[in-house]
Write a structure and sequence with these properties.
The chain is α/β, with parallel strands linked by helices. It has two domains: 50 residues; 90 residues, Oxidized Rhodanese, domain 1, CATH 3.40.250.
Length: 184
């Protein structure tokens, strides 16, 4: 009898342990399910909240120098004798995307090295494709004592109705035999 009682007691405790384990598993699944369902709702609320950047929004401006609009740049371009435009893009970006008709081309990584060539008596506008590198360049120049109006992206300027000039590299000269002419 003692054995039967011990076996019965063992089966009851084992069943109880199995139930507890199943309950723990169910609780864990419930928590995971609640988190999984709540996550998209939280993201949707965050995306819809004013002042937050969504998937298709423009990232927040993180520079001290202002991001200029087309109208602001056009007003500055009306007085070219008081302005210097510094384009911080690579040459291939200038030929692909176009740029302003007159500018000083200093690539972003070289800007600090060539500040001596930038006139301090003119207002500076920095340019890149979408103003990201231009914003960083504007802050760098403002920190060095230049009078910086702000930064603009050439593509943003064009999207707002501004006219951008395309720089087309000349085709190589071809000699009579069809081979390029050697340069001296």
């Amino acid at each position: 009898m003692k054995r039967a009682s011990m076996a019965k007691s063992f089966l009851q405790s084992n069943t109880s342990t199995k139930r507890e384990a199943k309950m723990k598993d169910l609780k864990a699944v419930a928590v995971i399910l609640v988190l999984a369902l709540a996550n998209p709702v939280a993201f949707a609320q965050q995306a819809a909240a004013p002042g937050t950047a969504g998937a298709h929004d423009v990232p927040a401006w993180k520079y001290k120098s202002p991001k200029l609009s087309r109208a602001q740049v056009d007003a500055l371009l009306a007085k070219p004798e008081q302005l210097v435009i510094i384009d911080v893009r690579r040459p291939d970006e200038l030929t692909d995307k176009g740029g302003f008709p007159a500018y000083l081309s200093i690539q972003a990584p070289d800007l600090e090295k060539y500040t001596a060539f930038i006139p301090k008596d003119r207002t500076v506008v920095t340019v890149s494709n979408h103003a990201g590198r231009a914003g960083a360049a504007a802050d760098l120049l403002a920190g060095k004592g230049f009078k910086v109006a702000g930064a603009i992206g050439s593509e943003n300027y064009q999207e707002e109705g501004g006219t951008i000039s395309k720089v087309v590299p000349p085709a190589p000269k071809v000699a009579d035999a069809g081979k390029p002419v050697a340069k001296n």
